[in-house]
Design a protein that fits this description.
This protein is mostly helical and about 450 residues long. It has two domains: about 325 residues, Up-down Bundle (Amino acid/polyamine transporter I); about 70 residues, no CATH class. Helix 7 runs antiparallel to helix 14 and helix 16 packs across helix 18. The longest helix is centred in the middle third of the chain and has 47 residues. The two termini are about 40 Å apart. One of its GO terms (cellular component) is plasma membrane. Component of the transport system for branched-chain amino acids. GO terms for molecular function: L-isoleucine transmembrane transporter activity; L-leucine transmembrane transporter activity; L-valine transmembrane transporter activity. Belongs to the branched chain amino acid transporter family.
C-alpha cells in the first residue's frame, strides 16, 4: 500500500540501517586522530568533520531516491556513458580492494595484535594476521550465511557499549583539558577546513552512492514510492542516525584531544585509540577492544567484497563470474593491507581529493534532477569540477611521486587560478562557473 510518510518506528528502522551501513572502524580512528591534532580547536574541526562525514552521505542517499537512480552507474550516466564506467570503477576500487577493504585488516591489527609485538616483528605479524583475516573473509564472502547477520545483531550494541564505557571513564579522568592542547598544522589556522577534509577519509559520501540504493529500497518496501517523498523520508530517518553519529564523533574527537596530556600525536588513529584504551583499562581492555574491532572489521570486509564482486561482474558484462571477482578482490585487498595503515591512508588521500568533488557535484545535481530538463548540465559541471580536482590530486600525492610529477609547479598554478585551493577546495568556484556555463549552453540549444 502506497503512503506519503513513514511511522516513527519505521523511521528508526531506516535510521538503524543507515547507521549500520556507514559506521565502521574508519569512523572511529579518524575523529580520534583529528582530535589529537585539533586540540583547543576541536569543536570547529568536529563541525567540519560532521558536515562531510554525515551530511554528505545523507544527501547522497537522498539523491539516490529523488533521482530514482538504480545505482551510482545509473546516476553518473547523465554525464556520459564512458564517464559512468570510469566513476563507478574508481569509486568501487576506492571503497573496495584498493583502500577501504585493506583498511579493515590494518585497523584491526593496529588496535589489537600490534600492541603485543615488537617493532621488528610488526611487518611479519601483519602478513600473518591479514592472511588469516582475509582467508576468513573470502570463505564468508563465497558462502555468506546467517552467521554475519547474527553477529551483527549483537555486535553494534556491544561495540557502542564498549565505546560508551571508554568515553565515561576518560571524561571523568581526562589526561588534559582541551583548552590547554595547542592545535597543530592546518587545524591551527583553518580548523573547519581541516575537519571537512578529515571527513573525506571515512569515504562515506562515496559509500552513499554505492550503497544508497539499499536504503532507498528499504523505504520503498515500507510503502513510500514517490521519488520526492523517498528523499524526504530518507532525510528524516537520517536525522536520527545523524544525531547518534554526531554525538559519537564529537566524543571521539574530545577523547583524542584530551589524550594529548599523556601521549604525543600518534601516527594514526588506530594507534591512538589503542593507547587510550590501554591507559584506562590495561591489557584486558585492549584485548576486548581488539576482539570487537576484529569482528566488526571482518563483517565490513565481507560486505564490501561481495558488493564489489557483484559490481565488477556487472561492469564486465557478466563475462567474469562473481566468484572470480570475489577471489581477485580479496587477494588485492590482502596485498594492499600489507603496505600498512599509514601508507593506505597516505595513498588514499589523493584519490579522495579527486573523487570527492566529483561525487559532491553529482549528489547536488541529482537532488535537483527533476528540475534539470537538459541532462547535459551534468557534463558541464563535471568537466569544470574535474580540472581543479586533478590539481588537488597531485597536491596530495605522497613523496616521491609528488616530486616526480613536479608537484610544486602544480601547486603554484593551483594557488594562482583556483580560490580556496590552499584549503583543498579549489574546485568550488569552477563548479559554480560550470553550472552557469551549462545553464547558458543548454538554454541556447
Amino acid at each position: 500500500m502506497k503512503k506519503q510518510q513513514l511511522t516513527v518506528s519505521e523511521l528508526f528502522l531506516v535510521a538503524s540501517t543507515l547507521f549500520g551501513l556507514f559506521f565502521g572502524a574508519g569512523n572511529i580512528i579518524f575523529p580520534v586522530s583529528m582530535g589529537q591534532m585539533a586540540g583547543a580547536n576541536m569543536w570547529l574541526a568536529g563541525l567540519g568533520f560532521v558536515l562531510t562525514a554525515i551530511g554528505l552521505p545523507l544527501l547522497g542517499v537522498a539523491a539516490m531516491g529523488v533521482s530514482h537512480s538504480d545505482g551510482v552507474q545509473d546516476m553518473s550516466r547523465h554525464v556520459s556513458k564512458g564517464y559512468s564506467y570510469f566513476f563507478t570503477l574508481a569509486l568501487y576500487l576506492t571503497i573496495g580492494p584498493f583502500f577501504a577493504i585493506p583498511r579493515t585488516a590494518s585497523v584491526s591489527f593496529e588496535v589489537g595484535l600490534a600492541n603485543f609485538m615488537s617493532e621488528t616483528h610488526l611487518g611479519f605479524g601483519l602478513w600473518i594476521y591479514s592472511f588469516i583475516f582475509f582467508g576468513l573473509a573470502l570463505i564468508l564472502a563465497l558462502k555468506p550465511g546467517k552467521i554475519l547477520d547474527y553477529v551483527g545483531k549483537y555486535l553494534n550494541p556491544a561495540f557502542l557499549i564498549m565505546l560508551a564505557i571508554i568515553f565515561i571513564v576518560a571524561f571523568i579522568s581526562p589526561l588534559s583539558a582541551v583548552k590547554d592542547v595547542t592545535p597543530t598544522g592546518e587545524y591551527a589556522s583553518a580548523p573547519i577546513f581541516g575537519g571537512l577534509l578529515a571527513g573525506y577519509d571515512t569515504m562515506d559520501a562515496l559509500a552513499s552512492l554505492a550503497f544508497g540504493i539499499i536504503v532507498v529500497q528499504s523505504v520503498r518496501q515500507l510503502g513510500v514510492d514517490e521519488p520526492k517523498r523517498i528523499g524526504m523520508e530518507t532525510v528524516k530517518s537520517g536525522l536520527f542516525a545523524l544525531l547518534a553519529m554526531a554525538l559519537i564523533y564529537f566524543c571521539l574527537t574530545l577523547l583524542g584531544a584530551q589524550s594529548r596530556g599523556g601521549f604525543a600525536i600518534a601516527e594514526n588513529g588506530g594507534i591512538a585509540i589503542s593507547q587510550i584504551t590501554t591507559h584506562y583499562f590495561g591489557a584486558f581492555g585492549t584485548v576486548l577492544l581488539a576482539i570487537i574491532m576484529f569482528i566488526a572489521c571482518l563483517k565490513t570486509a565481507v560486505g564490501l567484497i561481495v558488493a564489489c564482486a557483484e559490481t565488477f561482474e556487472s561492469l564486465s558484462q557478466h563475462k567474469i563470474s562473481v566468484k572470480t571477482w570475489t577471489i581477485v578482490s580479496t587477494v588485492i585487498a590482502f596485498l594492499a593491507a600489507n603496505i600498512g595503515l599509514n601508507n593506505i591512508i597516505a595513498y588514499s588521500q589523493p584519490v579522495l581529493m579527486l573523487l570527492y568533488p566529483l561525487a559532491i557535484v553529482l549528489i547536488l545535481l541529482a537532488l535537483f534532477d527533476s528540475y534539470i530538463k537538459d541532462k547535459r548540465l551534468y557534463k558541464w559541471v563535471t568537466i569544470f569540477t574535474f580540472v581543479p580536482a586533478i590539481f588537488d590530486f597531485v597536491k596530495s600525492l605522497p613523496e616521491p611521486v609528488y616530486s616526480w610529477l613536479g608537484g610544486n609547479g602544480w601547486v603554484a598554478v593551483g594557488e594562482t587560478i583556483f580560490p580556496f585551493f590552499t584549503y583543498g577546495f579549489g574546485w568550488i568556484l569552477p563548479a559554480i562557473i560550470g553550472l552557469i556555463v551549462g545553464l547558458f549552453m543548454t538554454k541556447q540549444k
